[in-house]
Amino acid sequence: MEPRPHDHSPADGSAGPGSADASPTSLRTLVLLPDLKQQHEPRAASGAPPKRSPEARLEEAIGLALAIDLEVVGSWIIPIAAQRPATLFGTGKVEEIKLRITTEEAGLVVVDTSLSPVQQRNLERAWGVKVLDRTALILEIFGERAQTREGALQVELAHLHWQKSRLVRSWTHLERQRGGYGFLGGPGETQIEADRRQIQGRINRLERDLESVRRTRALHRKKRVRRDQPVVALVGYTNAGKSTLFNKLTESGVRAQNLLFATLDPTLRRVALPHGIEIVLSDTVGFISHLPTDLVAAFRATLEEVVEADLILHVRDIAHPDSEAQSADVEATLEAMDVDPHEPGRVIEVWNKVDLLPEQARARMLENTGPDTVAVSALSGSGLDRLLDRIEQRLTSGRHEAELELPAEEGELLAWLYRSTEVLEREDSPDTIRLKVRIPASQSDAFTSKAGAFVLN
């Protein structure tokens, strides 16, 4: 089968992202997807979720390149029967790609798979341009996205683990040029000349700093537990709409774009549920297929918000053709964090972007949602009331409820009940106030002491 090249030149004939008014770090880039045929059959035979089509995988790889303003001048699906240890591709294909690089005047090639250090070095020598594999590209994106000190520490740690594994003299000269981690740097700039011992020393320091971050997060979690503030964590495949949903629920302005990894640094906000209970909602980094193991490890401090969360909202782009495969990747990442995505009562699937579905498909989806699924449109706000109700039901399922009747003059006690319990129902008469309340476990003793005399049998 012949490779299938795709033209990504601007339709209007303009210079595109690499023009004078575009990012100065833009590079003319070819995106290559090696389609390793021998990897498909075993998974399909096992009954696992359907594997993404090569076209969908290529489109995602292009999205990763565009996420750091690379100018994608062409893309190519390249079927290969087996990987060559030295160059991944066969000799003839390497030459064919070199001709395409020359024709497109490309300065960078993204190969959407994991390359060994030897393969990467040999391809750079054969093609005369920089080569990034999938891991390096994701690390570069994360390096640009990190805004907080914690995020920067986590990304640098992941980068150093990756670099340490590749000390074959091909990556000991990484130049720094931009906010990322130096893969795209130019000559004449500050160089990283780190041997294994120096890298390990820096890794040790970063891990100590991140341990301090973890201790601080643990203290914050303890305070939230004492104040009865359950944590609800948003997880999902990158670009599933988590940040848009987060903004709608919290009325905040977290960056939300149609861009892979638009959110990197964790964000926490308080949200009031329908009957007054307050939760802490956590927006986390998006997951992706083949997320580098070092990145998962480095972001442990952030992802502990997920591990420790009382409830996890798995946000899915239900209109995406690969929604099932994306869901499987998210569940695999959760399992790698020792979180069981199928634990009863732990996860609610939020089927987002239902507004993008045809009307009949949308109606069927709304009818088929169950106790563990809620269909919403984060963009329009449709279904968010149902989602908040479902969150409240899940978090309060074990709480005690009581009915009581207060004399009308018990204003101070009434105010305490509104502060410390969830008031589910209220009925006023000239002399009395009847209430139905839901009582947090931490307020049980105080409730008995303050309001026990007014509880109806």
From TrEMBL:
<feature type="compositionally biased region" description="Basic and acidic residues">
    <location>
        <begin position="1"/>
        <end position="10"/>
    </location>
</feature>
<dbReference type="Pfam" id="PF01926">
    <property type="entry name" value="MMR_HSR1"/>
</dbReference>
<dbReference type="InterPro" id="IPR032305">
    <property type="entry name" value="GTP-bd_M"/>
</dbReference>
<comment type="function">
    <text>GTPase that associates with the 50S ribosomal subunit and may have a role during protein synthesis or ribosome biogenesis.</text>
</comment>
<dbReference type="GO" id="GO:0046872">
    <property type="term" value="F:metal ion binding"/>
</dbReference>
<dbReference type="InterPro" id="IPR042108">
    <property type="entry name" value="GTPase_HflX_N_sf"/>
</dbReference>
<keyword id="KW-0460">Magnesium</keyword>
<dbReference type="InterPro" id="IPR030394">
    <property type="entry name" value="G_HFLX_dom"/>
</dbReference>
<feature type="region of interest" description="Disordered">
    <location>
        <begin position="1"/>
        <end position="27"/>
    </location>
</feature>
<dbReference type="InterPro" id="IPR016496">
    <property type="entry name" value="GTPase_HflX"/>
</dbReference>
<comment type="subunit">
    <text>Monomer. Associates with the 50S ribosomal subunit.</text>
</comment>
<feature type="binding site">
    <location>
        <begin position="352"/>
        <end position="355"/>
    </location>
    <ligand>
        <name>GTP</name>
    </ligand>
</feature>
<feature type="binding site">
    <location>
        <begin position="261"/>
        <end position="265"/>
    </location>
    <ligand>
        <name>GTP</name>
    </ligand>
</feature>
<dbReference type="GO" id="GO:0005525">
    <property type="term" value="F:GTP binding"/>
</dbReference>
<dbReference type="InterPro" id="IPR045498">
    <property type="entry name" value="HflX_C"/>
</dbReference>
<feature type="binding site">
    <location>
        <begin position="236"/>
        <end position="243"/>
    </location>
    <ligand>
        <name>GTP</name>
    </ligand>
</feature>
<dbReference type="GO" id="GO:0005737">
    <property type="term" value="C:cytoplasm"/>
</dbReference>
<protein>
    <recommendedName>
        <fullName>GTPase HflX</fullName>
    </recommendedName>
</protein>
<dbReference type="GO" id="GO:0003924">
    <property type="term" value="F:GTPase activity"/>
</dbReference>
<feature type="compositionally biased region" description="Low complexity">
    <location>
        <begin position="11"/>
        <end position="24"/>
    </location>
</feature>
<feature type="coiled-coil region">
    <location>
        <begin position="189"/>
        <end position="223"/>
    </location>
</feature>
<dbReference type="InterPro" id="IPR006073">
    <property type="entry name" value="GTP-bd"/>
</dbReference>
<dbReference type="Pfam" id="PF13167">
    <property type="entry name" value="GTP-bdg_N"/>
</dbReference>
<feature type="binding site">
    <location>
        <begin position="283"/>
        <end position="286"/>
    </location>
    <ligand>
        <name>GTP</name>
    </ligand>
</feature>
<keyword id="KW-0175">Coiled coil</keyword>
<dbReference type="InterPro" id="IPR027417">
    <property type="entry name" value="P-loop_NTPase"/>
</dbReference>
<comment type="similarity">
    <text>Belongs to the TRAFAC class OBG-HflX-like GTPase superfamily. HflX GTPase family.</text>
</comment>
<feature type="binding site">
    <location>
        <position position="243"/>
    </location>
    <ligand>
        <name>Mg(2+)</name>
    </ligand>
</feature>
<dbReference type="Pfam" id="PF16360">
    <property type="entry name" value="GTP-bdg_M"/>
</dbReference>
<feature type="binding site">
    <location>
        <position position="263"/>
    </location>
    <ligand>
        <name>Mg(2+)</name>
    </ligand>
</feature>
<dbReference type="InterPro" id="IPR025121">
    <property type="entry name" value="GTPase_HflX_N"/>
</dbReference>
<keyword id="KW-0547">Nucleotide-binding</keyword>
<keyword id="KW-0479">Metal-binding</keyword>
<dbReference type="GO" id="GO:0043022">
    <property type="term" value="F:ribosome binding"/>
</dbReference>
<feature type="binding site">
    <location>
        <begin position="377"/>
        <end position="379"/>
    </location>
    <ligand>
        <name>GTP</name>
    </ligand>
</feature>
<dbReference type="Pfam" id="PF19275">
    <property type="entry name" value="HflX_C"/>
</dbReference>
<feature type="domain" description="Hflx-type G">
    <location>
        <begin position="230"/>
        <end position="399"/>
    </location>
</feature>
<keyword id="KW-0342">GTP-binding</keyword>
<keyword id="KW-0963">Cytoplasm</keyword>
